[in-house]
Amino acid sequence: MIPQGLAGLETQLWLWMIAMIRPGAAFVAAPVFGAPQVPLQLRAVVALAIGVPALANTAFVMPQDGLVSIAGTLLVAGEVLIGLALGFAVQIGFSAALVAGEVVSNAMGLGFAAMMDPGTGAPTPAISQYLSLMAIFLFLATGGHLQLAGIIVESYRALPPGEAWLGARSMQGLVLFGGDLFAAGLAIALPVGFAIILVQLVMAMLARSAPQMNIFSVGLPATIMAGLVLLAIAAPVMADGIAAALQRGLAQAHLLATGG
Fold first, then answer.
1. Helical (H) or strand (E) element with 72
2. How do residues 162-218 score in pLDDT, each as one tens digit?
3. Phi–psi pair at 128, nearest 5 degrees
4. Euclidean distance between CA atoms 74 and 240, whole angstroms
């Protein structure tokens, strides 16, 4: 609460700003929250709502010389670092769907069909867009946004402000976890990608047996049609893979939040 009078107003505002740094940095790097379509004011309000109660439960002491000092600068840098690390860990799990979409799109011959991704604002293949939207729905449906908020609050216990510096082991674990991005993406794309490769092998055999057939006019529509049918059939399996990748991202964020 803002104290009576204006004597402690400046200190209270500084505390609110410190409380917003870690959740705000996490939301910038995290999926859904970091989308360009999410208003900055909404992120600030949610960051304040999460950070103030979490900061109130920690034994935090404002640097003696304030934030405009070496100690204050290090405190802000540490808060930004841990927040970005938490959000980036979740983003790695989320990006597995984009990698899977790239693999499937190239196998289907739709790598040229790009759409604007609302999550990143960059053009991505149409299949990546489809799997990205599936990942957003799964992230919200499974309570991933609530788990992320809980992880941020829990991080204040193990890494209170002023001591929120990730060790070499934590940074190495985050870097190595980036390798799971490609492994999870290929695992998600495997059911459809492998079947499309078989279709392309059939087209190759037809081209060898009937050289007069125009393989481009026949093979591309057949591959696209087979890919669309396979995507519809394998949607539940791919959704399970995306959900597993999201949970691994949240688990890595939780490991960072506990200082592991």
1. helix 70-108
2. 776 777 777 788 888 888 788 888 888 888 888 888 887 887 787 777 776 666 667
3. -60, -40
4. 41
The C-alpha atoms of residue 148 and residue 131 are separated, in whole angstroms, by 21
How many CB atoms sit inside 10 A of residue 222's CB?
15
Overall residue count recorded for the chain in this entry: 260
pTM attached to this predicted model: 0.81
Span 237-255, pLDDT tens digits: 999 999 999 999 999 888 8
Q: Is residue 2 part of a domain?
A: no
* Range of the structural domain that residue 148 is part of: 9-257
Q: Looking at the DSSP assignment, which residues form a beta bridge with residue 123?
A: 116
Q: What does the DSSP 8-state code read for residue 2?
A: P
Tell me the one-letter amino acid at 238.
Answer: M
- Structurally, the chain folds into a number of domains equal to 1
DSSP secondary structure of 109-136? T-TT-EEE-TTTSSEEEHHHHHHHHHHH
